[in-house]
């Protein structure tokens, strides 16, 4: 019996997941570990192996959903769990897009194109093999826009509320997407204008008629406001709740977004900026409009999507919102290089547009030639831009992927972790995992570590000899040492406070382990 | 559940084309029960509303059920020149004096293949009966009841009517279709439930002692393996616009839920065997937990407010941090979701002006709690007493307001 199309799709998805897993695990064996994956590994280990008050770690570690996504695979290996999650998650993204493609009745050529993209696009491979949470961002971004487009067609509350739920999930994958809500204001107005029962077709005249008639004006305002509330009240209220939870449990509303204990991005972005300005081939940051141009270079498919929707006003406006969003991110976070993730959203968005519009395109042969050519071009531009990414970690990924060299960026952390692993079983080590989370992730016994989530941490910092035998401090060369109290300035303080003294027992470039006597 | 229910709007149970295709000559006789008690002011309006139904007159069998001791309504009826399809039935004086008892009495005189109940102030969609006939024809034989959505024509009258509209929109447009999809017993609404007459007789009619007889009947039908469907047709009622009247009505409903729960849970194991785990859980969540939630809501809210305002650190002795964390999370997320679902429901009905009123739900729930305590008190002292709701208080009696 010949398997049905959905069954084929399931088999392809499983094979794709295996392919991603092999890539991810191989890269991991070559030494590639993203800071995000290490951060999740460390937090997950605290939850499952740590001793003490772990509620804050469970509830306030951010981004929340990618963190929870790694939970399932922790039993296999805490270090590989994020990689497994991202590999399987990316395969699920493929399945979602491919299912929509089949439902639209598109032929196998489109599926092949999609498969080629998911097999060879360096950006997609980065999503799948890096252990980062981008896969969830892309999934929910895709689902959000899919439901928005479905709402345009069906005008039902079901789709608009699903879009809202997807937006909530998206924000809990990446907080920066909260700003996307800003750029929907004109769009929502446009939707409301078009939904009014008027004979006039031209938008500008519809606006004029609506504003000059009190009844229509009231209707327009009510509807605009209602749509905006239905889409955005849930994300905004969720964030408010989450902030209140942060306030009640960490005495800081923005703990999840600004504390290095709550999220990995604080240190990663700072470190990247330091590396970027210290780099000999330092390039000036992108100028505002060039960000959009770069998005189009990475994803030329977006041009085809805009072309397909050329006669639909608010669909075009919808497609423009992510451009406005990334331009805004560039202005708001001026010291942060825009990560590749924010360009990848255009790939899933353009795929969605093609899935929606391709069946109605008359000349399928021309469309297929165009699509095939653009996809090939996109594979190259994706590779080129990742290779020249301002983010060190992204360039590093591509280098390891293409050259299959051993990645030594985490060697120092592994060395220190190995030394700690070799200490006597009863030796206690004081570590601040705000900056030293990679070392904690590589250690074998987390129970012997005194970490900030434990209630005794502050006391241990004040009088370490009463609690621990060793202290891990950052060295002066450590670029993020300033984020922790356990920095080089800590040693004289301890020596002055007590006749006991400390002795350096193991040193790397960024870390120094002291023994307390 | 509500989200699943909201999928109901993606397809219409009965389309306009299907209604148009119905041949009038082939339609069956349809019985309509109109149990009225002290509704002398509304009787004219009631007749007017039913006259506008799109159904062959000769095939309507309308029973006006009037209690023997209700002189006012009887006199009002005597002064009216009824169309022949109306038949007045005087229900003999006998306890309990409840609506289900009157309806059970009316069953003996009913001739229709299908039967429905409307309240005195109801304004059903004109094509509702035809839609029901069309849907019954499409559904398998084990579907014995079809519930129409209920909503209000006087929704913008005051705060209470707005909140009531929010609640009904959510319940009938989202929750009931959701329960239906999940195949959970559906607590039928008070009116506009359309039955196949023979099956209604087989079920033994309504429980005359139960003050939410329809919710009880929904569970009994489910236990016999019969199913209830939801239809895309609305009956517009008059929302209670007076707080004390509202509390009276709500206390009866909550008391009825308590009654139904106690009756069916006399032997939980037997109930579980009869309706299965899905039905059992659904029954406990939607019939049993409803009054309990309203009873504990003010107590928990008071404890929480005291904790926040007076900073009761001693509370931490009883509730560890993780319990507080989870509780605050549940409080916020639960409230927000309920408010959001209410917003969705009125958004679907295009009542955009009501959306922001959903935020006032926590206050509205306090009124439910007052009613729940009243209902609990009555359950003990007057378990079968029918707390009468006064109708005709609205200034908007014009059916033209419907569907605006």
Q: How would you describe the overall organization of this protein?
A:
- The complex is a heterodimer of chains A (517) and B (404).
- Chain A is mainly alpha-helical.
- Chain A has 2 domains: 5-403, no CATH class; 411-516, no CATH class.
- Chain A has 24 helices and 5 strands.
- Chain A has helices at 5-29, 35-49, 55-60, 64-71, 81-103, 108-120, 122-129, 134-154, 157-171, 185-195, 203-212, 214-250, 255-258, 265-278, 288-298, 301-308, 313-332, 341-357, 364-387, 392-403, 411-421, 433-442, 457-462, 490-497; strands spanning 429-430, 449-450, 470-474, 502-507, 511-516.
- Chain A has a 5-stranded mixed β-sheet, with helices on both faces.
- The longest helix of chain A has 37 residues, at 214-250.
- The model of chain A has no long low-confidence stretch (mean pLDDT 89).
- Chain B has one domain (1-404): Spore Coat Polysaccharide Biosynthesis Protein SpsA, Chain A (Alpha-Beta Complex), CATH 3.90.550.
- Chain B has helices at 2-6, 16-20, 43-51, 71-78, 99-107, 128-138, 159-181, 197-202, 213-223, 243-264, 268-310, 315-318, 321-348, 361-381; strands at 30-36, 60-67, 86-91, 114-117, 123-124, 143-152, 193-196, 227-237.
- In chain B, strands 3-2-1-4-7-6-8-5 form an 8-stranded mixed β-sheet, sandwiched between helices.
- In chain B, strand 2, helix 4 and strand 3 form a beta-alpha-beta unit.
- In chain B, helix 10 (243-264) packs across helix 14 (361-381).
- The longest helix of chain B is centred in the C-terminal third of the chain and has 43 residues, at 268-310.
- Chain B is globular, with a radius of gyration of 22 Å.
- Chain B starts with a helix and ends in a 23-residue tail after the last helix.
- The model of chain B is unreliable at 399-404 (pLDDT under 50).
- Chain A binds chain B through residues 53, 55, 59, 154, 156-158, 160-162, 164-165, 219, 222-223, 225-226, 229-230, 233-234, 237-238, 241, 244-245, 248-249, and chain B through 3, 6-7, 9-10, 321-322, 325, 328-329, 332-333, 336, 340, 343-345, 347-348, 352-353, 355-356.
